[in-house]
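seq:
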Amino acid sequence: MPTRRKFASQLAGVAALTAAPFHYAHSQSIQLAKILVGFPPGGATDTVARRLAEKMRGSYANTVVVENKPGAAMQISISTLKDSAPDGSTLLLSPTAPFSIYPFTYRKLPYAPEDVLPVSSVCSFAFGLAVGPAVPSNVRGIKDFLAWCKANPGKGNFGSPAAGSTPHLLGILLSKLSGTELTHVGYRGDAPGLQDLMGGQVSAYSSTVGSFLPHLKSGRLRIIAVSGKGRNTFVPDVPTYREQGYPITATESFGLFLPGKTPQNVVRRAAAYLQPVLAQPDVVSALGDVGMTAKSSTPQDLADLIKADTEEWRRLIKMIGFTAES
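struct:
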């Protein structure tokens, strides 16, 4: 297992491998291809993967299926990809966090940067902080929430879909920047966390904007802030953290990856298939339904994005004092 310091330098090596010219390249036809997903069926990631599989079926491969490998914060699905044949038949749909954040939030990982090859970005998304019925209805923004937390010792908490995840770190960052003690409550995915939020068992919840969208009409939760440098198109009335005085602008992307030893012509072939797929109106609409913005890229662009995110999270994690034992 490489050290955390080596992680970024090895990622640069991955970027160099993906720097070949981006153009369509024929390769041996694939009968059956699978897209690995590190989450259970029914979630946003699974929805995106199934839409991609539907569009790639009959062109990229005769048959394209989704294989769910949930658990261990994506480590099972990434390990499965690492051990798969490098022939283009096994792909992974993953957020970039396992490669840019987890090296700093997990003591050991079963994969290294060279074990995967970036193919293309798929979509980007922002994060939000929502409150539920445990918090008074007059709490409409971050400053209101923090004031309520300070006035009600022991009630200042927030949930997230996993310890060490981006939403968890953003909650810690808010606590650090505001000087307000916020206790983290870790869940195994959004479903139980959102259930507790709407049931009043947890005061606030940090997750992707898309995870909150299906519940807004019920009135059982309300988003009080979103990340990003500008307003989020899916909830344009919600002010950003930055507008409310806290420079929390992190966004994240999903990408498609192949095993580390995959030949470059196979990587380019996969990227070439994705580019027109992600421009199709029904795909853009389907991603929008789960709060994500469709966005393709070259393999190099995705590698560069992960490298930049790694350096930014290295800085932020050092600033907030988070360790793998936290």
